Amino acid sequence: MARPYLYITRKLPDEIVDEFRNAFDVHMWPHEEIPVDEETLQHHIQKANALLTMLTDKVDENSLRVANHLKVIANLAVGYDNIDLKSARDKRIIVTNTPDVLTETTADLTFGLLLSTARRIIEANQFIKSGEWKQWSPFLMAGSEVHHKTVGIVGMGRIGSAFARRAKGFGMEILYHNRSRNVEAEQELQATYATFDDLLEQSDFVVCLAPYAANTKGMFGKRAFQKMKTSAIFINASRGLNVDETALYHALINKDIKAAGLDVFENEPINKEHPLLSLNQVVCLPHIGSATVETRERMIHLCFENIDLVLKGDRPKTPVS
Ligand code: DGY
């Protein structure tokens, strides 16, 4: 029997992919750092039984029009806003993502981003390396305290809760805002539910971990930043489109808020001329929330496992509902 046709939209490590060559007829985009172009993706979608996609691949109604054999799209991310779920459902294509295996890793990075932004760690590192450190002084690179402050988490799902556990270890008071109440977080972490506005007004740190959806677009805009404390630090590690970056830039230069730590951007990669990158009080990372070797390997394995299950006619481990 012919092996199912699998198209992988980015070059993944041969050591992992080779494990699956007996089971699948594997075709793979040859570049690690360049996303697949539309034409190539279309060409393979026409033939494929399974796709292993990245968050940079836009899989929409148009690209799925030619998907006549496709049974499963395994997205190498917990987020799946790059895939048009309705069009996939209409074509009876199952979409899977990679939750759980990246939760703790992404929470580590988010907390690290908060610490780096509050304590000016990246700026201080640059300061030394560019030869500017002439003398110790009492307020040299003095930042904001983290321990025992109030953190407001917007998006209290798996990653939000894992982040809250870290915050708890720092003695922080935890507020959260979510689509629905997270009773576990309330009981285990003494997290307190707050309306969006109350959270913005009361938090020293506002951390966005909400997945992107049409109704979260630009939720952190001018109004939200003006509600925050002038000493507030804003962290975003979910999706860039949740933030109005022009409003964020103005909030920072007008001192409506103090600083921001960003792992994600409206357009990725962000243009190096983007005004946000010119600000010392902004710490920027290139969307590396789940980027540890161990986690990325777990994510890839989970994608293969999901593909295998669907093609065998079973329920995948982590379908997108
Ligand atoms: C995801 O999995 O959606 C993350 O953004 C990747 O780091």
From TrEMBL:
Known EC number: 1.1.1.-
Residues in D-isomer specific 2-hydroxyacid dehydrogenase catalytic domain copies: 8-320
Species lineage: Bacteria, Bacillati, Bacillota, Bacilli, Bacillales
Name of this chain's protein: D-glycerate dehydrogenase
GO molecular function: oxidoreductase activity
Family, similarity comment: Belongs to the D-isomer specific 2-hydroxyacid dehydrogenase family.
SUPFAM superfamilies xref list: Formate/glycerate dehydrogenase catalytic domain-like, NAD(P)-binding Rossmann-fold domains
Keywords attached to this entry: Oxidoreductase
Listed PROSITE patterns: D_2_HYDROXYACID_DH_1
